[in-house]
Amino acid sequence: MRVLVVEDERVMADAIATGLRRQALAVDVAYDGAGALERTGVNEYDVIVLDRDLPRVHGDDVCKQLVAQRYPARILMLTAAGELDDKVEGLSIGADDYLPKPFAFAELVARVRALGRRAAAPLPPVLERSGVRLDPGRREVTRDGRPVDLTRKEFAVLEVLLSADGAVVSSEQLLEKAWDEHIDPFTNVVRVTMMTLRKKLGDPPVIETVPGVGYRL
């Protein structure tokens, strides 16, 4: 899952991003509304964590523009304004969820993951295929009941493959979903991560390479 965090308080923005990355999510950060619109113009996100009171372009206007463009991401609006009328207004302009500050980080993670499952075709909370079971909430993976210890990136790549439900996923799509905007597009990190992931999942192999196209589970 790829997430954009839009928050003008840099310490908070960076803390949210760091925490979400520890949950095996790919996270980019924008510190104002204009930066958010620039990033959504070139990247496809699953969830946008959007502060409402932003400089340059107000969070409400960012939300309205994304909705008008039919941008596919789900929007979680963060704001210090937690009154009922504020929540209603935020949802009425197109936000999918609303979380007032201060908030518990565990709740933020749960809401981001719930929105991510709704970003495209609905996904079950636990993903399973060919004996491989992945629980995003608990950060647990098993193969035929055997626990599999994965790094954050290996976990993220496996989650993308399982979410594809047997469809082929290209290296470019894996870079888009499992890494952030700072990754070198010419890197061999996908191939290396896939090699270690296959080794940890064990035999018989469940990840197939489709030459010239990508990978599927």
From TrEMBL:
- Its GO CC terms? cytosol; protein-DNA complex
A GO biological process of this protein is: regulation of DNA-templated transcription
Stored PROSITE patterns: OMPR_PHOB, RESPONSE_REGULATORY
DNA-binding feature ranges: 124-217
Question: Which branch of life, at top level?
Answer: Bacteria
Q: Which Gene3D superfamilies match?
A: 3.40.50.2300, 6.10.250.690, Winged helix-like DNA-binding domain superfamily/Winged helix DNA-binding domain
MF-aspect GO terms: phosphorelay response regulator activity; transcription cis-regulatory region binding
Q: Which residues form the Response regulatory domain?
A: 2-116
Q: Which residues form the OmpR/PhoB-type domain?
A: 124-217
Q: Which UniProt keywords apply?
A: DNA-binding, Phosphoprotein
Instruction: Indicate where the modification 4-aspartylphosphate is found in the sequence.
Output: 51
Q: Which InterPro entries match?
A: CheY-like_superfamily, OmpR/PhoB-type_DNA-bd, Sig_transdc_resp-reg_receiver, WalR-like, WH-like_DNA-bd_sf
Is Phosphoprotein among the key words of this record?
A: yes
Q: Which SUPFAM superfamilies match?
A: CheY-like
Q: What is this protein's name?
A: DNA-binding response OmpR family regulator
